[in-house]
Write a structure and sequence with these properties.
Number of helices: 15
Number of domains: 1
Order of helices and strands: EEHHHHHHHHHHHHHHH
Radius of gyration: 21 Å
Number of strands: 2
Shape: globular
Largest sheet: 2 strands, antiparallel
Structural class: mainly alpha
Distance between the termini: 27 Å
Strand order of the largest sheet: 1-2
C-alpha cells in the first residue's frame, strides 16, 4: 500500500489509496461549512439591502460583480500558491515550500495596493458600462466607494488561503471566513438601519460592513499563521521576478478565468437590463445567485479539496492517486449539489419571498431558481474538475473552458433566447442553465484526457 503524509493535517493522518473518499470529505467539509456560513451571509445581506428597495438590490448586485472582478488578480496568486505549495508538500521540499508561501504573500500585498488604487480611478467609467437607471447608478457609486476599501484585504486573504489549502489545511480559512461573516452581518444590521445608536447610513453602511468584514478575515488568517508552527510563512517576502513568473504562470489563467466570468456577467446583466423586465430582472439576478449558492458553494469546497489533493499526489509522483482524488471529489460534489438543487427548486418561492416583496422581481427569481436547478449536477462536475486541473497547475485548460462556456455559449445564447425568440428574461435564465451543463461536460472530457498529469510547476 502506497501512502503519503498530508502536510497541514495531524501526524496520525496518512493518505492512502484505501481512504480516498474519507480524505476528500475531510478536506472539503471545513470549506463547505465556511461556504454555508457565506451563503447565510449573502442571504442576510440581500435581505437587509432588499429592505431599501429594488434600486439598492440592483446596485449591490452590480457592486458585488465589480468586487468579484477585483479578486480576479488575487485568484492568480491564490491558485499559483496552492498548486506550488501542494506539489512541494507532496514532495516534502520544505525549503521551496517556505519560499513559495512568502513570495505569494508578498506578491498579494503588492497587487492589492496597486489594484485597489486602480479600482477607485476607474470606478465611474466601469459603473457607466452597466447602463443602470439613475437611482441605481447613484447607489452603486455610494456602495462601492466604501466597499473598495476592503479590496487590499481580499488580496491578503487570497494569498494566505492559497498557502493554507496547498498544505491541506482548510480549517484556518474556514475560521477566518466565519469571523468575517459575523462582522459583515452585524455591520449590516447596525450601519444600514442605524441600530444600537449607530447612524443610519443605508447603502453606504452596506459598503462599510463589507470592507470591515474583509479586513477582519485577513487579520484573522494572518494571525493564525503567525501564532502557529508555520510562523515564518506569515512574513511576506520582497517579490522577485522568478517567483512572479512561477506563481503567475499558473495563476494568471485562473485569474483570467475569473475575469472572463465577471466580464461576461457584465454583458449578461446588460442583456437583462435591456429586456422588457429591465430593473426587475437585474434585481432578480442577485437573489437567484444568492439562493443558488446553497448548491454551488459546497461544490467550491470540493474543488478546493481536489486542488490540494491532486497537487500533493502529483508531488508524491502518484498519478493514479491524483486521478482518483479528482473523480472522487467530483462525484461527492455532484451528490451534495444535486441534493441542494432539489431543495431550492422545491422552495424557490419561499427563498424569493425572503429578499423582496416586489411581485415581478419575486416571480423572476423563482423562474431563475427552477430553471438553473436542472443542470446543477453537471455544474458540480465542471466546478470540481476545474479545481483539480488548477491544483495540477493546468489552469490554462480551465480558463479556455470558461471562455467557451461564457462568451461562446452563454452570452450569445442569452441574446438569442431573450430577444430573437422573445423569451425575455426567462430566455436569459435558460442560457445560464444550458451553458452550465455544457461546462460540466467539457471539464469531464478535459480531465479524462489526462494531459494535466504532465504539467510542471
Amino acid at each position: 500500500m502506497k501512502t503519503m503524509r498530508l502536510s497541514g493535517v495531524s501526524e496520525a493522518s496518512l493518505l492512502s489509496e484505501d481512504n480516498v473518499a474519507r480524505t476528500v470529505w475531510r478536506l472539503a467539509l471545513p470549506t463547505m461549512a465556511a461556504s454555508v456560513v457565506q451563503s447565510a451571509n449573502s442571504f442576510l445581506d440581500r435581505i437587509f439591502v432588499g429592505r431599501l428597495g429594488a434600486e439598492s438590490l440592483a446596485a449591490v448586485g452590480v457592486g458585488s460583480q465589480l468586487l468579484f472582478l477585483t479578486m480576479a488578480l488575487a485568484m492568480a496568486v491564490s491558485t499559483g500558491a496552492t498548486a506550488i505549495v501542494a506539489r512541494m508538500a507532496g514532495a516534502n521540499d520544505q525549503r521551496s515550500l517556505r519560499t513559495a508561501a512568502r513570495q505569494a504573500l508578498g506578491i498579494a500585498l503588492t497587487l492589492g495596493v496597486v489594484f485597489s488604487a486602480l479600482g477607485y480611478l476607474l470606478l465611474p467609467q466601469i459603473i457607466r458600462w452597466y447602463g443602470l437607471e439613475p437611482g441605481a447608478d447613484t447607489q452603486a457609486h455610494l456602495f462601492l466607494g466604501w466597499a473598495l476599501l476592503g479590496a487590499p484585504a481580499s488580496f491578503i486573504m487570497m494569498g494566505l488561503s492559497g498557502t493554507f489549502r496547498g498544505l491541506g489545511d482548510t480549517r484556518s480559512p474556514m475560521y477566518a471566513s466565519i469571523a468575517a461573516t459575523i462582522v459583515h452581518v452585524v455591520g449590516d444590521y447596525v450601519l444600514i438601519f442605524g441600530n444600537f445608536g449607530f447612524p443610519k447610513l443605508g447603502i453606504q453602511g452596506a459598503g462599510m460592513a463589507m470592507a470591515l468584514s474583509l479586513w477582519t478575515g485577513a487579520g484573522m488568517l494572518w494571525s493564525q499563521q503567525w501564532f502557529s508552527a508555520r510562523r515564518e510563512l506569515a512574513v511576506p517576502a520582497l517579490p522577485v521576478m522568478e517567483w512572479w513568473r512561477r506563481i503567475l504562470r499558473i495563476g494568471l489563467p485562473a485569474s483570467a478565468r475569473t475575469f472572463i466570468y465577471t466580464t461576461s456577467s457584465v454583458m449578461f446583466t446588460g442583456i437583462l437590463a435591456a429586456t422588457a423586465a429591465g430593473t426587475a430582472a437585474v434585481a432578480a439576478l442577485p437573489i437567484g445567485l444568492t439562493a443558488e449558492s446553497i448548491a454551488f458553494m459546497p461544490g467550491f469546497a470540493f474543488a478546493i479539496a481536489a486542488s490540494a489533493l491532486v497537487g500533493q499526489a502529483l508531488g508524491a509522483k502518484n498519478e493514479r492517486l491524483a486521478e482518483r482524488f479528482g473523480w472522487t471529489a467530483a462525484w461527492q460534489s455532484c451528490a451534495v449539489m444535486t441534493t441542494m438543487a432539489v431543495v431550492f427548486y422545491v422552495l424557490a418561492e419561499q427563498f424569493a419571498a425572503l429578499f423582496t416583496t416586489d411581485p415581478q422581481v419575486r416571480a423572476l427569481a423563482v423562474a431563475y431558481l427552477r430553471i438553473n436547478a436542472l443542470t446543477e449536477p453537471l455544474l458540480a462536475f465542471g466546478m470540481t474538475l476545474a479545481g483539480a486541473l488548477q491544483g495540477a497547475g493546468d489552469s490554462l485548460k480551465a480558463m479556455l473552458a470558461t471562455f467557451l462556456t461564457q462568451w461562446v455559449v452563454r452570452v450569445p445564447l442569452a441574446y438569442l433566447l431573450a430577444f430573437v425568440l422573445g423569451w425575455d428574461a426567462h430566455g436569459a435564465w435558460w442560457a445560464m442553465a444550458l451553458s452550465s451543463g455544457f461546462s460540466g461536460l467539457l471539464m469531464i472530457a478535459l480531465f479524462k484526457h489526462g494531459g494535466w498529469k504532465k504539467v510542471k510547476v
